[in-house]
């Protein structure tokens, strides 16, 4: 099978969408498929090359002025590769692949990685729309995408090629007992709630320390907030870490306090590290934690309950050991190999159902492809938006 993956960039900055795409492309190439990643580049090109994946520079950005260049670049790539499947991971690539190629011979698969974004609705342009959790599938169905066009493929990082062959990084010198979070510094990640919970926790366990690993636009605001509530000396903002295994290996409790979370990759990483996990009951998090068997689930926006859960795990050795043991079980469902096989099955079903090469032949004979495609996708009104990519 010839596959092209589209994304705005291939930067190694902790972006979960890019990490999933890179894992998927490398695994598919290892399985013998002809795989291309087309992006604005950034840092993963050497890794892709080592795994037999070609990278093509194709700048993608939601700016009208760049549309002609993007369309021309994609058409040159399509003419050269003649793919069976184009897999778009971001909105710009999805619209480009759907409306930028006149004689489309490929099946278009889109993945909704971040359902909370308004633009996620535009991913409906795919012949098949994949969601990263059942919760996201329910949300996308509520937005008008027929259930029969949706497929669920949960994220997984176990066996990631991004870390294959790399030794465990030198462990940072963490104080204990410690709470660790790996998250972008965004309000939606619940960093403020975690800081408030940590302030409550410190009244019970004065020796506790918090490590916040990640970068983002709200970092300065969060650092100022930590100062305001009196925990700045014990809440360490560590910044971005490309390989956070050293932090996970030492975490007494791992916390993800997100307000919305489609299916955080970090939960797979924390489970693989055998950590005791506390996370919010939002989005796909319960699915990533086996409904609460592999981690304690707490309500979002509730620092007091979050503090109670962390306190229990830091003070009850038996509860901590039991939860950490359960987190380490059943990890095969989070393997990159399983991820690759699941997506390949989606590709095959999509090719069988939409027969894009037949539609391309009809177009070549003068048939109006819009009359064929629009009823099938329910997107006749979306075509007019293609010039605002």
UniProtKB/TrEMBL annotation:
<feature type="domain" description="Glycosyltransferase subfamily 4-like N-terminal">
    <location>
        <begin position="15"/>
        <end position="156"/>
    </location>
</feature>
<dbReference type="Pfam" id="PF13692">
    <property type="entry name" value="Glyco_trans_1_4"/>
</dbReference>
<dbReference type="Pfam" id="PF13439">
    <property type="entry name" value="Glyco_transf_4"/>
</dbReference>
<protein>
    <submittedName>
        <fullName>Glycosyltransferase involved in cell wall bisynthesis</fullName>
    </submittedName>
</protein>
<dbReference type="InterPro" id="IPR028098">
    <property type="entry name" value="Glyco_trans_4-like_N"/>
</dbReference>
<dbReference type="GO" id="GO:0016757">
    <property type="term" value="F:glycosyltransferase activity"/>
</dbReference>
<keyword id="KW-0808">Transferase</keyword>
